[in-house]
Amino acid sequence: MTSSSPLNHSIAELAANLRAGSVKSRDLAEAVIDAQETHESALSAYRDRNADYTRAQADAADSAFAARYELGVLQGLPVSAKDLYAVAGYETFAGSPFPLPMYAKEGPVVRAVRQQMAVIPGKTHTVEWAFGGIGMNPHHATPRNPWDMTDHRAPGGSSSGAGVSLWQGSAVAALGSDTAGSVRIPASWTGTVGVKTTFGRWSLDGIAPLSPSLDTAGVLTRSAEDAALVFASLDPHVADPWAFLAECQRAEARQFTLGVCEWMFEGNSPGVGEAVKQALDELAKAGARIVKVDVPNLIELHELFRRGGIAGIEFAAFINRPEMAKWKAAVDPIVSSRFSAIQAIPATEYIARMDQIAQMTAEALPVFDQVDAIVGPTIPITPPRIADLQSVEAYQAANLQSLRNTSVGNILEMSGVTVPAGLDQAGMPVGLQLLTPNGADERALAMAVAVERVLGTPRQRLGTPLL
User: Fold this and answer.
1) Which of 44, 160, 170, 182 is catalytic?
2) Domain spanning 11-462: which CATH class is it, in words?
3) Which of 45, 294, 315, 336 could bridge across to 164 with cysteines, CB 3.0–4.6 Å?
4) pTM given for the model
């Protein structure tokens, strides 16, 4: 995003400017379209976009402002949508080669965006069926991580275009989904903020599924304060988004005890663990209590995840439905290689895994009697080069590593946020993950805002990518 773009402000500032009339939604739309036309050929954030439709939505928002209709925080602001979400005006492919007519009706999350008359400028790329953490998609495109314009590095998946759209300057917030890290991975690798909501808190209607037992809707934003405001504007349990933001802004690092999970630092790429530890040192100096915690069963949990967990089994059941035959036949070999063996797992094994996860979840919960959040690197590795992942073996190894730390939050039913901690030795963004108990989404966001006040916004902490 250029420094002269009218979008180069926080969501709170943009909302105030729109209401004061110092900027129009149409002005923002033109900036979005310009950013897409300038950067899309290099970054490939979007599977589909429509300049005329973007302008029409913005004009409608401006008309509502002129009529003194107050529809919500996001009124007139551009919000990109992952290509799992049904959005009127755009087809849904879920990263597959064919449109999905059964996912044409908007669900509650998109309706909450629409009811505020936000502008949806396009559908961002996703990994096929959201089944992967790297961000690759051979059917449409693999977005480019904007932090390396020399080598094509992974943007993170499965919400692969979401974080890219934010740095591109074509959105101030991005709708994603998170089954094992699919919001937090692209947020971490692109240096943005990602919110994984508690399972079941936001409806999954109108979102193409991967794993009904683990899927969650979420958002990516350009700062923790933006994340708090967008979350509150979409969450059916928060009555006043502005009051919630103010509450988050009052939070201070010294109020929180952060439990460092050493397991999450194992096998880190050079500079990843160091960036997170530096951030934790700064938070300690600001008064946060930093302690070590032992989260039980992590080795067993990762082994279960490596064997497909329950997500792979549920996806295999979905893609093997008779009506999905056309889509199954077209599944990319890298994706299909991960579930070809999983689909043979019997129902008894699936039930046993569900029971095992329930037990592990119960055994992990007492950790939060000691700490407000479990913390560690969001992703242990630096974004790999796409050229290095062309074999199934190389892809599977990197994919498993990318999902290692984030999958903990999904399997153990936690909410969580990732915020930028710094850059690794390759000059790529590193995320600090904050995992909180089931239902503690508000606490996670308050902590994220307090952390951001110490570390700085993504732009302050990392600088900006050289687009």
Assistant:
1) 182
2) alpha beta
3) 45
4) 0.98
